[in-house]
Amino acid sequence: MSVGIRHDDLRRRNRAMVIAAVRRAGRPSRTEIAATTGLSHSTISAISSDLIGEGILAEGKPSEAGALKRGRPQVGLGLNPEAAAVMTVVLSLNFLSVAVIDYAGQVISEEQRRLDTLTMSREALIGECVAIVRRRLEDPDIDVRSVARIALAIQGITDTKARAMLWSPITPQTDIAFADILEAEFGIPATMENDCNMMAVALRWRDPERYRDDFIAILLSHGIGMGLVLKGELFTGTHSSGGEFGHMIHRPGGALCRCGRRGCVEAYAGNYAIWRNARQLSEDTEPVADVSDAQMRALAATARERAGPEREAYRKAGEALGYGLGSLFALIDPAPVAMVGVSAAAFDLIEPALREAIAQTAGGQHSESISFDAEPNELPLIREGCAMRALTFVDQEIFAPGMQTKAGPAAKKNVA
Amino acid sequence: MSVGIRHDDLRRRNRAMVIAAVRRAGRPSRTEIAATTGLSHSTISAISSDLIGEGILAEGKPSEAGALKRGRPQVGLGLNPEAAAVMTVVLSLNFLSVAVIDYAGQVISEEQRRLDTLTMSREALIGECVAIVRRRLEDPDIDVRSVARIALAIQGITDTKARAMLWSPITPQTDIAFADILEAEFGIPATMENDCNMMAVALRWRDPERYRDDFIAILLSHGIGMGLVLKGELFTGTHSSGGEFGHMIHRPGGALCRCGRRGCVEAYAGNYAIWRNARQLSEDTEPVADVSDAQMRALAATARERAGPEREAYRKAGEALGYGLGSLFALIDPAPVAMVGVSAAAFDLIEPALREAIAQTAGGQHSESISFDAEPNELPLIREGCAMRALTFVDQEIFAPGMQTKAGPAAKKNVA
DNA sequence: CAGTGTTTTTTCGAGGCTCGAAAAAATAGG
DNA sequence: CCTATTTTTTCGAGCCTCGAAAAAACACTG
């Protein structure tokens, strides 16, 4: 079970805490850090002096310009942008997007590229990823040695260890250990994350007021995905990235899903399902490979304009999502929901049936109080989530190490 | 967010760790404790010497009599039974059961009582609970002052703070803050737990090999309940005890459930549902109040004997449970399952349809590898779980105290 | 039965860490 | 220029854990 706390863990953890406080607060003063961490001023002073000496933090103006106060002005502590850099790689349908981000979170280099992910061979897919990363690393603006971490995100299922993609709708290939591949190729630690989990991470940084301890991000796109934060922690399955909300069963034996099974929520609410129903095709019809965002927007426009199969298709989607959420809420209790992706722009068409369905379920006891947010564009969210994930890794594992590196050679004395 | 680690927390946590190690291992030697906690021998020596001095631990023979080894024999450390005592109160349909348990986990006094929970008034129900607790505390064998904790368990929904029962099938009353009531009455800290969660806790102590980090306990009784352990932690909802597996939706608009809604898993797999289907009554038939265990066993016997509505009823139950588990597994990935309660004794009738259904779902990809255990008797499990819950509370909160009660009246000012 | 080997447990000094109090620093206001 | 105020640093005290060595407790051996 869990292990005792060694004496040296103490400093490590408190260092991590200080870095985290700075990352969250922007440019807090030492006093503010002391307040949020609960540690004493002396401790914060010692730790931050270390961190500045190591080039991790840098002093600057305090965050609030309201420095028109009486006493000694606060000195803001900020992350030193040059302390490190991280790289994000987002692989989505027919699209590959890479960015290099400095330690303070600013994008310093990026590249995007169209691919035909559905038909590419395994080697080609891996090759493209490796190549685009290599090009960014060779960018003269980038100091390769400063890149401390790569975070990949992909639509689909990844493993809990964040090493491999297990399955993805964007490619017929399975079980690609992207993290291991990139690590071997570039010698930079890498992780392979699930796209919806990264959306959830990003929402938490974007709006910590609303998305704090418990919330749900649902991707309404070609497939239906979910990122779930419970009790302040990203929820993952025990073996995989988990949270396959889209493949909860809505109707046993029902509509044909892209995954080959029947009755999944996605088989009613995914783009292909809405499109299939809007065209009044049978529920047994093989899901089409891709419906463009433009087509979906046109469908939504028609549905808004007049009653008909289009509107009914959105109603069915809402119903499936509502019952699915109801079942989910039976397990975890209701929580704020963010709808992300192209169909989030059609949430007005989905919401009535969704709320009606949810009211029929155990989780819907206070269905009117459940609040939904819509964000049509998932890509920026996924990128942000990846960046934060990689940066917090650097914060914790690289700048607050001490697992077993007893290697301390020269005892460092106080920095003058 | 999380708070820095103070210097005094260190000792507190390591004390708790040592106590936990002793509770898990039985009579470990100091050397064994050092090994499992990862702390040094000197530290373990210091802490255990403190704990013995405080009467929390006691020396004794080592756990393994295989002490025929060469050197200085190990000295076993055990929990001192007289260090404290706890009380468990389990309230189930028409039955109230109380036990007093010493610090080492032995029952030292108990009492059970039949009640008519379904028709009792709120006051009568509370009164019975208070009275039975009082009688146990007045037992001359018990030192009242040693009773450090009361843990109640009830079938139904409790709140996350473990203070109150929110809703229960065993009584029409709602929102009874049992924990507060008992605390006020006896001045002993109390918690109100969900029965299925306690089953899960107990399974973990009974068989840590099988039920370690991720597993599911499902109560198949009049209602369907669930206790879920994920990543080594008891899973609860964000507001309530959560994990209302029985009220996930199996068929939208389907059979009438005891909760008043339609299509819940329970409306197919609860005792009343199996009974209703076996009698070939309509799915709209109002659920009967109670089906006796004897009636259920008779039903199962008939189903085993010949094809007919009884067998079909169990098949439907299996199907509902299978699809429900499939949806659950879509979220959390498959995990070992313990089926508990009277219908667990009929699991042979349920399993085929359950496995068939689960194979139709996303979580069922490796359905044959999912393993089920059956335990027909839930009450002992619930009692054990309560006892362990109360005892670990004493371990942590009373014998390793020192929460950072920063009681600081000098809060934050600085609002220019 | 004393001596030797082995394993467990305790002791002791060293080194770190956090804390509170006090000092130092930096500014606005008068 | 002096004073009040707030932030930050300094310093000694008090704990805590650790490693090494000593002490303890037994089995085995001749």
TrEMBL record, chains A, B:
<protein>
    <submittedName>
        <fullName>ROK family transcriptional regulator</fullName>
    </submittedName>
</protein>
<dbReference type="InterPro" id="IPR049874">
    <property type="entry name" value="ROK_cs"/>
</dbReference>
<dbReference type="InterPro" id="IPR036390">
    <property type="entry name" value="WH_DNA-bd_sf"/>
</dbReference>
<comment type="similarity">
    <text>Belongs to the ROK (NagC/XylR) family.</text>
</comment>
<dbReference type="Pfam" id="PF00480">
    <property type="entry name" value="ROK"/>
</dbReference>
<dbReference type="InterPro" id="IPR000600">
    <property type="entry name" value="ROK"/>
</dbReference>
<dbReference type="InterPro" id="IPR043129">
    <property type="entry name" value="ATPase_NBD"/>
</dbReference>
<dbReference type="InterPro" id="IPR036388">
    <property type="entry name" value="WH-like_DNA-bd_sf"/>
</dbReference>
